[in-house]
């Protein structure tokens, strides 16, 4: 997802200040505060009260925006979906500007860079693991979010892999839709193992090795 | 894991009937009853009371064996770890008895057959997803179980893949330890997506395609 547009002086673009915009800003402030509280204190011990205090709001007002802790936690996760990682500037350094492998290298680098970035926010990854597990139950407030998130990720990666296939960069016989679901699955699963034993698994290595298998021209 | 030895007449082998054996049998009866209750009623609505009734035991006695619902649920999952799937008898039908690819075909078939079998017990898979997600939190009774389970699975698959590498059946450049963690991760992750939208993903296809990439001589 795109980041908000910025002006030349680096300040955020001016937004319409109607009631909706104000409410959206307040909502974003709550999500930011919740991220800080849950990332530092853990999401089990972090409380609504702390989040409310941090944004200078009563708990009753906070409940107007987020009726349950689960819904606030899911909003924290959803806000992370829009964050694009900073790509490694060196990743293309060995390639000519017109090297035909560049799209495959960029695709693989975006994923492995994001996986490395996730290691810096273990509280968020833990939150993701717990909620995505709990969300499979029928009545969980996160069920719709995760169902849509998975469908969206699969569609995005499948479209990327179809483009790479059309450029002749996808290994012959690899199905873009299956590989898209596999990337998402491998990523979730290796993060889960990492949360249980961080020293035992190398998240970005596992992803890089799989991507090297399906995009064999990549130098990874 | 091995199944209990059976006598020629099909009855289970005779066991020593000491107090420990009796206690272990009672424990197993509870786990079996809990499996039935949680698989049919769902593990949120299935209760200790129902499990106790089914084994003709008071709830207090049941708490002696399993002090919390989580511990009982984890015992249900652990009991499933020992179940080996029935292998497809046709999987080797196209191969000569001395075909050198047989160990790779068997390895891949064991995994994809188990994945298909899991689709028949969605309640157990849901239970696994919820508990393995919750278990990442420090104080969860499942943390030790899942940490050991993941380490054991990675070690087992890595040993299998090293043997396949020594037989020349593993793709050159594939690291057995990384591939072992990847199989477990992909499996967990694709099951999670399947729980959210069973029509959108094909679990055994995703596993089969990955195994075909790392074991390229496999006819899959």
Descriptive notes:
The structure is a homodimer of 220-residue chains. The first copy, chain A, is mainly α. Chain A folds into two domains: 19-81, Orthogonal Bundle (Arc Repressor Mutant, subunit A), CATH 1.10.10.60; 89-214. Chain A has nine helices and no strands. Chain A has helices at 19-41, 48-54, 59-65, 69-81, 102-118, 122-134, 143-166, 176-196, 203-214. In chain A, helix 1 crosses helix 2, helix 1 (19-41) packs across helix 4 and helix 8 runs antiparallel to helix 9. The first copy, chain A, starts with 18 loop residues before the first helix and ends in a 6-residue tail after the last helix. In chain A, 35% of the residues are buried. At the A-B interface, helix 6, helix 7, helix 8 and helix 9 of A face helix 6, helix 7, helix 8 and helix 9 of B.
Question: What distance lies between the first and last C-alpha atoms of chain A, to the nearest angstrom?
Answer: 25 Å
C-alpha-based Rg of chain A, rounded: 20 Å
How many distinct domains of chain A? 2
Structural class, judged by helices and strands of chain A?
A: mainly alpha
For the report, how would you describe the main beta sheet of chain A? none
Mean pLDDT across residues of chain A: 85
Topology record:
The structure is a homodimer of 220-residue chains.
Chain A: H1 19-41, H2 48-54, H3 59-65, H4 69-81, H5 102-118, H6 122-134, H7 143-166, H8 176-196, H9 203-214
Pfam families (chains A, B): TetR_C_6, TetR_N
Biased composition (Low complexity) (chains A, B): 1-11
InterPro entries (chains A, B): BetI_C, Homeodomain-like_sf, HTH-type_TetR-like_transc_reg, HTH_TetR, Tet_transcr_reg_TetR-rel_C_sf
């Amino acid at each position: 997802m795109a980041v908000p547009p910025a002006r030349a002086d680096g300040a955020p673009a001016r937004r319409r200040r109607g009631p909706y915009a104000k409410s959206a800003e307040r909502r974003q402030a709550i999500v930011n505060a919740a991220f800080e509280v849950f990332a530092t204190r853990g999401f089990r011990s972090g409380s609504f009260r702390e989040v409310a205090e941090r944004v200078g709001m009563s708990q009753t007002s906070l409940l107007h925006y987020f009726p349950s802790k689960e819904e606030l936690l899911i909003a924290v996760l959803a806000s992370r979906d829009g964050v694009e990682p900073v790509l490694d500037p060196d990743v293309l350094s060995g390639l000519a500007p017109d090297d035909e492998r560049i799209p495959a290298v960029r695709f693989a680098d975006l994923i492995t860079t994001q996986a490395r970035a996730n290691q810096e926010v273990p509280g968020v990854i833990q939150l993701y693991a717990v909620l995505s597990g709990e969300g499979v139950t029928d009545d969980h407030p996160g069920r719709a979010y995760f169902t849509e998130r998975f469908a969206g990720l699969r569609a995005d990666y499948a479209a990327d892999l179809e483009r790479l296939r059309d450029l002749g960069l996808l290994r012959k016989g690899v199905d873009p839709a299956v590989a898209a679901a596999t990337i998402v699955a491998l990523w979730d699963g290796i993060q889960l193992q990492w949360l249980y034993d961080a020293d035992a698994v190398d998240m970005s290595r596992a992803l890089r090795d799989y991507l090297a298998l399906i995009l064999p021209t990549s130098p990874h």
